Amino acid sequence: MADAISEVFALFRRCNKYIDETTPWVLAKDEAQKDRLAEVLYNLTESITIGASLLHPFLPETAEKLWHSYRHHCVILMSSISLVCIRMEQK
Hints:
Shape: elongated
Number of strands: 0
Number of helices: 4
Largest sheet: none
Mean pLDDT: 78
Structural class: mainly alpha
Order of helices and strands: HHHH
């Protein structure tokens, strides 16, 4: 059981490293990098969702808090991306 939880947390650590490697905050400032930003955010969305699902059997309350918080931030983020896409199409 400890090995399984360790692997889930290794996934979350890898997500943090991926954020450091891909610097989404830098990508967001460059209109030419919007497709790459969308790819990075998609990869993170999938990884965090999978990690929360794997964590649920061991720490159900923590996983549910993660889902709730993440879903809230994801909706805001996706709204921002949609606004950026709309603005780009209007140009």
